[in-house]
Amino acid sequence: MVKFSKELEAQLIPGWENAFVNYRRLKKHVKQIKFSSNPKPKKHSSPSFDLAGILFMSSENHVTVPVRINFDCMQVIKRRIISHGETEEEEEEDEEENSNRDLIHLFTLEDEVQLFFQGLDDELQKVNKFYDAKEAEFIERGDLLNTHLQILIHLKTLVEKNTRPTDRSDVLGVLEKNGVTGVTYWVKKRDKKIALRTETIWGELLNDGEFINRKKIQCAEKMIRNSYVELYKGLSLLRTYSCLNSKAFKKILKKYDKVSHGEAGKKYVSEVRRSSFVTSDKAVRLMDQVEALFTHHFANGDRKKAFKFLRPQRRRAADHSHILTFFVGLFTGSFIALFFAYALLAHIRGMLFSPRQIRYYTEIVYPIFSMMALFSLHLFVYGCNILMWKKTRINHSYIFEFDLNTALRYGDVFLICTCLMSSIVGAMALHLFFVSTATFSPHMADLIPAILLLVYVLILICPFNIFYRSTRFYFLRLMRNIIFSPLYKVSMVDFFMADQLTSQV
After folding, report:
1. 92, 209, 242, 377: most buried, per Cβ within 10 A?
2. Strand ranges (DSSP E) for 149-305?
3. CB 408 within 8 Å of CB 468
4. What is the mean pLDDT of residues 83-106?
């Protein structure tokens, strides 16, 4: 059974770790209380010896029966009778020391209990303060998004009704009607620049061209939709934060009652239940409001479709983990076997090659295969990064804005990497065999790297839903954004990918 402290640490929300209950510190206080409430056992004094009690024993029939004792036993009895007087004096001193020790333990216990409840008050105040601040922040974001949504609805209606392209003045009228202010942009009118303030979303919309068309409205709609999704995720995390902290308080107070044999913990639990992070329902009501608005405006009333955005279900790792493990092991073994076969073949054939053939192979053919191998090496390192990010609880999917339904796991990356490396080493061994054999012409051997590269390109652009289609198309979009960066908006993942590519220069 997993301890609650480890369970709590495993479920901590990244970035909010310091705002959670310090369960370990409170648990240490409970252990100190347990130690203080159980003082060290008293020293047992040597029992006073009664010669009659030693010489005679009481039987079950209450008849005093004499007991035979040998000479050695008599000597022990004599020595203990002599030391009996000294033992009585030691007993009085021990009783005085034990009474003093009991007083010390009593005061220590009171101090530990006081520290424990002081720590509880501090933790409860910290949790309430953080929860109230986050709740107010999300409510403010929700009101702002509702304003943006109303503007979007008005603009969509305006664009649909007007036959001519909607210009900036029409959009400004809608913005001023809704009281939007925020980002400065410039409009030339009568050779004067007039600074107008509007929100970031609409500022970008207005600055990009003279007219507003459907494409720009769709772009703004996508931004607002993603903002609603992020708001809903934040509210879900806030609910998780509330549940975990409430459970932590109940667990630690239950431990305290068990140690102290009292009911003070139960009384404090009632205080926790009256706290704002437990009783407040503003976050829940805002979640219901977001669900209703999102379903109506972004999913055409389809609640199931709306929840695919709001609550994306990540595919379970256990569904295909055994298949992934099998194929990763299979291709890894194939790669190792083919690599040793290639090394052995290169050693044998290298002694038969002329210097011209060796130069041709190392300067022309080998760089082509090494370029493909370098791509596989990048994939392997990326898989290691995902593995370490998972172990250190870094939410890379959130940082790079990956879709949880299609984001690659480290097992998927290792599978692609081992498959590519096996095919590359196999093609290298086959090419070396063709070159060193007189049966095949050199031109046929030179087609092998070209065929391999062509197969990779065809798989990359394959439109069918096989071989991780969503990931392949996402990679193509990344490369497009990097190559034509002045023409496309780049994000964090584009910078990350470009940095990986420039590191090879």
Report:
1. 242
2. 166-167, 183-189, 192-198, 211-212
3. yes
4. 47
Whole-angstrom Cα distance, residue 495 to residue 480?
13
Q: Give the CA count within 13 Å in the CB-facing half-sphere of 113.
A: 17
Token reading at 145: 């998004």
Average pLDDT over residues 271-279: 91
Among candidate residues 287, 285, 294, the one with its CA nearest the CA of residue 235: 287
Tokens 């926790």 correspond to: 272
pLDDT of residue 167: 54
Task: Classify residue 13 by its DSSP letter.
Answer: P
What DSSP element (H or E) covers 65? strand 64-66
* CA nearest to 146, candidates 192, 168, 179, 100: 179
12 by DSSP, 3-state: which?
Answer: coil
Residue type, 66: P
Q: Which residues lie below 8 Å from residue 57, measured CB to CB, with a gap of 6+?
A: 64, 65, 67
pLDDT digits (tens, 9 = 90+) for 30-62: 888 888 776 545 444 444 434 333 333 333 333
Task: Report how far apart, in Å, the C-alpha atoms of 289 and of each of 50, 137, 237 are.
Answer: 86, 16, 17
Extract the tokens encoding 421.
Answer: 């490396």
The maximal CA–CA distance of the chain, rounded, in angstroms, is 130
DSSP track, 277-305? HHH--HHHHHHHHHHHHHHHHHSTT-HHH
DSSP assigned state of 19? G
Q: From CA 229, how far away is CA 225, in angstroms rounded? A: 6
pTM of the entire structure?
Answer: 0.63
Instruction: Print the SS3 string covering 334-377.
Output: HHHHHHHHHHHHHHHHHCCCCHHHHHHHHHHHHHHHHHHHHHHH
Q: Please give the Cα distance from 307 to 313 (Å, whole number).
A: 9
User: In sequence order, what are the beta bridge partners of 192?
Assistant: 189
- Contact in structure between 376 and 420 (CB atoms under 8 Å): yes
**In what helix (H) or strand (E) does residue 58 lie, and over which residues does it extend?**
strand 56-58
State the average pLDDT over residues 247-276.
88
Phi/psi of residue 166, each to 5°?
Answer: -75, 125
256/30 Cα distance (integer angstroms): 6
Structure tokens at 427: 């093609």
Distance CA 458, CA 91 (A): 94
**Using alpha carbons only, what angle is made at residue 424 by residues 422 and 428, rounded to the nearest 5 degrees?**
115
Which residue did the predictor score with more confidence, 415 or 362?
Answer: 415
Q: What is the pLDDT of residues 155-171, one digit of tens each?
A: 788 777 765 555 555 55
Q: CA of 145: how far to CAs of 135, 136, 149, 216, 484, in Å?
A: 15, 14, 6, 18, 32
